[in-house]
Every structure is written in C-alpha cells, then in structure tokens.
Amino acid sequence: QVTLVESGGGLVQAGDSLRLSCAAAGRTFSRYVMGWFRRAPGKEREFVAAISRIGGSTYYVDSLKGRFTVSRDNAKNTVYLQMNSLKPEDTAVYYCAAAMGPIQYSESGYDYWGQGTQVTVAS
Q: Taking the CB of the first residue and of the last residue of the chain, which one, N or C, has fewer CB atoms within 10 A?
C-alpha cells in the first residue's frame, strides 16, 4: 500500500510557474513508476508525464513537452512536476499516481492515486 499526497497547487497568472509535489508514504518509493495526470473541467483525466523508478527516463504528453518537467527524489519519497509558462488551458486537478509495472500512459496501469491538487491559471 502506498499513500500519495499532492501539494503545490494554487491560483496563478498565465505565464507563471508552479511546482507540484507528491509525497509518498508506505512501501519503498523507488519500486514504483510515478505518473502525473490531470482532469480539466468537463474533460476526462489525461496523462501528463511519467518517470521511471530511478528517474533515468521521463515521458510526456506531446503537447506539454518543453513546458513541464517531471523529476523525483527517492531519498525524499517525492515526485515533482515543474510547470512553466502556464496557460489557462492548464487549469485542472493534477493527480500523481504510482505503478508497480512498467511505464504507463494509461491511468488503468496505475495502482495508487493521490487525491489531487487544484491548479487554476487566470488569463
């Protein structure tokens, strides 16, 4: 069992940056592939980024490459999502998730989820 808690969301202006954090408690954090997803108002939850167990490989949805960066610190049991040049369309609830299997782009591949943190980008 892994408990995930996201933090760092908030209300920002377009063009600002935010860094989301996801702290994990429970079993060995480094055993898990970690992912970030988001759900915008009225839309389905979508994949944002994922990072391998030791952080050597990262994956992004094409539309966010270059603006968002995923990283992890296994010593702190934390995964991060650095979001730059934020746009109003980035407004969403952002979720982190942990997968015991290989890198996943689909939410069905993740075993544990956080409760989410709201990011609102004003124009």
A: N
